[in-house]
Amino acid sequence: MDDMRLTKLELELMDILWDLREASVREVQEAVPEKKRPAYTTVQTIIGRLEQKGAVRRTRKIGNAFMFEPAITRKSAYRRVVDEMLALFGGEAQPVVAHLLEAGKLTLADLHAIEKHERERKGARK
């Protein structure tokens, strides 16, 4: 997973697979909101790419349809996205956090939850 890069559409389809746990290409396609639903063949192509990357795997075949499940966790995929974003800022989180605060996408409650998580993480290491 360390060198696996997922596109925005790949992540969107992975989110659906993480929620469904196992699905056919048709089920994934139909789970995309209608306003932005890609064509079946587009979803089929993306699922194929995800399979080549090792992000999904075939689990079984029902009739002519293969069933797929995530082969990576949501946490590991999003960790990679965040790490790539931080790399754009020289590895510094402060500019990102400042922007999120200014944009109203990070609240005081979020910061308290982060502090609590950090205290628990430090406590677990002792």
Describe, in short, the structure shown.
The chain is mainly alpha-helical. The chain is built from 6 helices and 3 strands; from the N terminus they run H-E-H-H-E-E-H-H-H.
Structural features:
elongated; 126 residues; single chain; Arc Repressor Mutant, subunit A; 2 domains; mainly alpha; three-stranded antiparallel beta sheet
How would you characterize the overall build of this protein?
This protein has 126 residues and is mainly alpha-helical. It folds into two domains: 63 residues, Winged helix-like DNA-binding domain superfamily/Winged helix DNA-binding domain (Arc Repressor Mutant, subunit A), CATH 1.10.10.10; 34 residues, no CATH class. The chain is built from six helices and three strands, in the order H-E-H-H-E-E-H-H-H. It has a three-stranded antiparallel beta sheet with strand order 1-3-2. Helix 2 packs across helix 3. The two termini are 29 Å apart.
Task: Look at the structure and give the CATH class of the largest domain.
Answer: Mainly Alpha
Report the C-alpha radius of gyration, rounded: 18 Å
Shape: elongated
CATH homologous superfamily classification of the largest domain: Winged helix-like DNA-binding domain superfamily/Winged helix DNA-binding domain
Q: Which class best fits the helix and strand makeup?
A: mainly alpha
Mean pLDDT: 92
Our count of helices gives 6
Oligomer: single chain
Give the termini distance in whole angstroms.
Answer: 29 Å
What letter string, H or E per element, gives the SSE order?
Answer: HEHHEEHHH
As a percent range, the share of strand residues is: 5-15%
Q: Tell me the domain tally.
A: 2
**What is the number of E strands?**
3
Looking at CATH, which topology of the largest domain would you report?
Arc Repressor Mutant, subunit A
CATH architecture of the largest domain: Orthogonal Bundle
- Profile the largest sheet: 3 strands, antiparallel
The helix content is 55-70%
